């Protein structure tokens, strides 16, 4: 089937793997995303304080402009993980610009809580205002396990999955 | 020295702008080459937003033609929205290409395709953002050659100060010739600098370099003459015509957009040119002679284009598609080939001809039936004779009745207001026509539930047409006529409620008229409007009539002219027109004669089917009409979309 799908698509669009999906829509199985937030010129210690304040709050209200106008909503509840990652190793003697890196896992909720909203939340609870626009990269999206990890939403259909993963 | 992508800086700005996906690039069909492995590099721009610019056929064709050359690199750039423009200025991010996010300033050529004059202010924004001096005279070897193309370049005088060169007509061969000239000049070490390069381009006699021409004016404001200021530059610059379109089957690898665009389909030009002779139509006049693509080439292009792109809609484009000599076999052949697929076929707005209903039937075999559009253009038979659009009221009623009785429920009719010799009565006729369409349509369809939309645009006289001498109507008169028309349509409530009425105010058309027949003095107005914030003049949200009028009032009087002088003034036969030194092949005497004929309501036939009437194009350009029929048919395809999944 993988070969048939690949042949039907235009050259350059390659189907690497195909799994016959079970019940339910794909959208329903994607319930969380993992993000990496890079904050250049932000001291990791300051980021750490902000993240702690954020996680300690029961609710963090932020504002965002939507099609329906400005909305206020809670950015805290959807966040399952928010932690400052260690700074990347620099070659000895090298001078780098400091950069805080935040590892973030957010559940898919309505209204959607975006990484921008978590950053707004860090500003709201701790006054964290990055001097340079942060760079946000999605690392993964899929099904959130009980352990808080994000796994491939089609894992369950692969057929040979036992408890504890492939 | 290599050139790097500005994406890292751009990326930071994207979360703060609307529709950021339009700036990201990476479309299927996009080509990214190693900068250092190429010798001649083109940045191609359609000077409007991505959603309008990406589907443009002209740019896509040139993009492919250029990228097929191994040592040539072509990338695309579009107008950025004002929100991103502001951020780019603040953060020092230059105008970039979407393919590899390279700065436009680094390219050898910055080519802009102007389908409309209303893109001129967007060109100035792009130059400014790119860090390229607005004035051609201020540029040096570090700047690209700014080259204009597209229909508006048949009178580029309003932007003569800003462009380095213009190409008139078909671009395929032109861009390859220009590439060759630049390649050689660079290989020789750029002798003589920028001036020498521009001279070499001018010597081809089909590339217009404005700086090599001086314009003198008479005391009353008219142009006295336009003359070359260099010895080996031609008095007139000729347009280009690509013959044998079967040899240029582009686009082969159409771009598939990332953001929503105005057209999302694979478009094939089934022929270029038009000899119907509608007197207002610049496109028809400047693209002569007619050159068809054969049915087999069209079939091949559709097959490969769909396989490459995955589009599920095909548009068979031309100025008057039903006139293709093989259109019947083409439509039935394609309909047959794609019968059990999800591919739908469409023709653009067609002439009022019952034959088109048959075609439309073929094309909607799989049930998808969109609206039908016809363009009578004039409300009364008299005015249709003036514009040479030969269709009687009976033809129109018969055609739309056929449409309604064959299951169509929506018909759109295009008209113009402000045509030469027009009176209120001519415009009111539109209402009477629309009423009869509904009456006859309801009877034919057997139901009251049918609709007709009347869409009216303002007439703008264009260069290289018989109407290039015509006065424009004042916006107040146009607006008054449209009000009368609306009243007349609604004077019968029962019929009126089935008629939709769409129109544009007279003011934007007046400005289009200023630009279309403007000369170099109008360039100062364009610049002033841009300085005051004029952008996206083709968009009603952004267009400001007041800004244009103010700019005219500030800039033109000291030169002895004004907005009216360029728009509502009728020209005399012997007046030197700003584009007379640009040769579209049409004989100026023939155009004047056709203008006089129009005023006597005399009709002109189509030279594909009646004897040549000496418009001048073929002898002047050494071209000929290239039409079929070839007698071939389209063969059945092996099924494209039969996906068999193993059990």
Automatic annotation (TrEMBL), chain B:
SMART domains: Elp3 (SM00729). CDD domains: Radical_SAM. It holds the Pfam family Radical_SAM_N2. InterPro entries: CHP03960_rSAM, Elp3/MiaA/NifB-like_rSAM, Radical_SAM_N2, rSAM, rSAM_horseshoe, rSAM_sf. Residues 260-502 form the Radical SAM core domain. NCBIfam families: rSAM_fuse_unch. This is TIGR03960 family B12-binding radical SAM protein. It comes from Actinoplanes flavus.
